[in-house]
Write a structure and sequence with these properties.
The chain is mainly α. 74% of the residues lie in helices and 10% in strands. It has a 3-stranded antiparallel β-sheet, with no helix packed on it. Strand 1 and strand 2 form a beta hairpin. The radius of gyration is 30 Å and the shape is elongated. The two termini are 44 Å apart.
Length: 141
């Protein structure tokens, strides 16, 4: 519902919320907001491209891990029959590659920068909860 005021007042929208009545002015977006929106969209696109690249890398690493595990099983089977130094060296090399691949998969899925944001949100909202609790406790007494 739109209300038009006389004089130099801007147009207003009436908003009903939980039995309260609010008047919000209708404004056109500022040029700064449009620039911020464009920058936000560019950042989101860049983040999406990084996510897609990381997803492709994870899929390739997982495929390589499966191949290495299959080769490891083959080498172990051959090693039971022939205990040659070449098979032992190949087994050791495959195990090292698997360990490096597992570390790469785990380390890139887990980042400290993601935890930093979660930590500060927990501190902020946890602190807010404590303050609200103190206020409610003081009111109840």
């Amino acid at each position: 519902m739109q209300v038009r005021a006389s004089g130099s007042f801007p147009k207003f929208f009436i908003v009903f919320s939980c039995s309260s009545l609010f008047f919000l002015p209708q404004m056109a977006p500022a040029p700064d907001e449009a620039i911020d929106l464009e920058q936000g969209l560019r950042q989101a696109e860049a983040d999406l491209l990084r996510l897609k690249a990381r997803y492709a890398q994870v899929q390739a690493d997982q495929q390589r891990q499966i191949e290495l595990k299959n080769r490891l099983d083959d080498v172990r089977g051959n090693l039971r029959r022939d205990k040659t130094p070449a098979l032992k060296a190949e087994l050791k090399q495959i195990q090292q590659q698997l360990e490096a691949l597992e570390v790469a998969l785990e380390s890139q899925l887990f980042s400290w920068s993601g935890l930093k944001e979660v930590f500060w949100q927990a501190v902020r909202f946890g602190g807010l909860g404590i303050v609200i609790g103190w206020v409610l406790r003081s009111i109840a007494l």
